[in-house]
Amino acid sequence: MLNEAFAHISDRVEETLQPQGFTKVKIQSTDSNEKVALYTSENLAYSVIYTLDDQHMVLRECPMTDDGPNNDWKSLATWIFDPEHDTMKEASSIANDFCDALVAPVAIKKLKQTKKTKKSDDGNADPLFLSKRFITLFPDIRDEITAEQDGYYPFRGVTFARASIVPRVNELVKSGKSADLKKLGNILSAQYTNGDMDTRSIITIVILNSIPAEDEAKLEEYLDDNLKKAFTYSKKFRGKTVKPEKEKKKKATVAQRLESMQR
Question: What is the pTM (predicted TM-score) of this model?
Fold first, then answer.
């Protein structure tokens, strides 16, 4: 049912986007937890993605660069689709909603106004984006990400990685389960390729360098060649003090902000 529903929704989206100059791109998700369909034009990209862990069917958009989508995805519509209980009737409702969003005046205006951005050597995925990629491996990390976002601005990537990502990664690597190691390797490799400098440093110096030396070989075989090379180089920083993040101002809670408005 899921494959049939996803195919129906993605085909309907393709039919809607083709007259606007979009082409469906053949891709295969590196995450076994996801199903993805991608459509691109010169300046804009849309994707339909389904995540098995939370059963979300999502329509997303992001600008295009000279090298493809910049991966700074913005969700336009989200539905829950449970393949155990939902039918093609629900799939058609989702498809209708997605297509309505794609032909809305605001979408047409955005397509005309969006210009292709030039992608530099510094990628577009930031530490917050990286942290959210771990939800597929560690669903319980979602609440910690939300708490960090609510408490601090900007997102404290290094602090969060040390407190919330590193312990989970070390436990996963220690267990040595090949399926989980492969998924982790795919996440780290993809985000290292697409990430900005802060994200790449967090992956190598914070996350990978925190894996005990006796366990690192278990994961290393699942990293792509680019990240393997960076990991080898980063090992010289082990045991050395890395410049900490600047202290960031803690955001007021919702209650505190409401209280200040009433004064």
Answer: 0.51
| Other Cβ atoms closer than 10 A to 228 | 16
Angstrom distance (rounded) from CA 182 to CA 179:
5
Here the contacts of 69-73 (C-beta below 8 Å, separation 24 or greater) are 69/38, 69/40, 69/45, 70/117, 70/119, 70/124, 71/123, 71/124, 71/125, 71/129, 71/194, 72/124, 72/125, 72/129, 73/47
The contacts of residue 208 (CB under 8 Å, 6+ apart) are: 188, 216, 219, 231, 234
Record the tokens describing residue 158, joined without a space. Answer: 């290094």
pLDDT of 15-74, one tens digit each? 999 888 888 888 776 677 889 999 998 888 899 999 998 899 999 998 887 777 888 888
Quick one: tokens of 68?
């493809």
